[in-house]
Design goal:
The chain is α+β, with helices and mostly antiparallel strands. 25% of the residues lie in helices and 35% in strands. It contains 5 helices and 18 strands. The strands form 5 sheets. The chain has a 4-stranded antiparallel β-sheet. The chain has a 4-stranded mixed β-sheet with strand order 2-10-7-4, covered by helices on one side. The longest helix is centred in the first third of the chain and has 23 residues. The chain is elongated. The N and C termini lie far apart (79 Å).
Amino acid sequence: MTSSLSRSAWCVPLAAAWMLAATPAPLHAQLAPRLSAQVSLDELSTATAALPADPALASLRSQLQGMADELRQDAGKDADKPADLVGDALRGRIVRAHAAATRVQAYLKTMADCQGADRTAMQSALAESVKLLAAADGGARAIPAVEDVQSMPVPGSLFAIRAGGGPLAFALTGSDLFDSQCPSPRVSVTDAGGTALANQPILTGASPARLELKWADVGQVPVGPVVLHVVAQRKVFLLGCQALPEATAVIAVVPATHYRVDYALEAICPAPGDANRVVALGKGTLELAGGGASAAQNVPTTACAEPAAYRLSASVSASGGAPSPAGPFTQSAQASITAGLPGGLTLSWDPSVQSVFVRAGANTCKGVR
């Protein structure tokens, strides 16, 4: 006869198992569909439809639509077949169309705070990347493709870099970029005409989906579009390591943004009676380059021994553009003046040290580093 103790010992794990079975399984992210011509066509359609109605993107839109038309025609009845099960030529079109759509989506996520020359440079780099993907031919069992260029260590899609900067760490993400059984892929950089640049990035890490690189001195890279070339190899049975079709991506090198701030500082001084008089203390120009840069000038205040208030006004121009006025900003003589200027600059007047100070904020355009 079974004792009550042994019965309890047998029932506890049974109850626990029943409770675990009744607990809903945790929800996981939905798996992406297996890549096929139809999947790439859907991605191209979504990316094209999401592009802003900007005349500067008209050629890009046409390029994407052209890729879709050619892929649709080549796929025919095989549109739903997985890319791994179709011929090499069609597989190449599928992979490159997917890469183009992915790069467009990266641009759409990054462009929100980009204006003027920054946005123009990003659009140019994106259009050139898609153009190269569309023009590529040839196929293989593995098709290397660069789907995104990302900054490091903080990841973010990269479309342009500023000339004159220091070392740059970045990564190329995509597919079939490396085979561990073969030598490391060769990564090189050329100008738009195909001429190799004197300053080349160095490969620091590799996996099939990611290549990490470091560019030692971006200051030596000329302004304009640059093309990143990836030549990977793949181990083939009985044949050894064989070169794969080249993968490319384009980023733009843009000049560092130069700001010019012209300011005027005045003091509001007590005068006999109820009137106050405005005394000009000084005018000047402050110039600075790039995000985080700063400049300062001293302004003597001896022209007004006991001011009631200070008044500061300015105009700002970026990289030779039209000036934008700001101010005047007025504050009691016992307090400092701090005001925001166009372009993300901050203008300050500190009467305790008699100095006008300008600082450029961090770049708000995440697609440009």
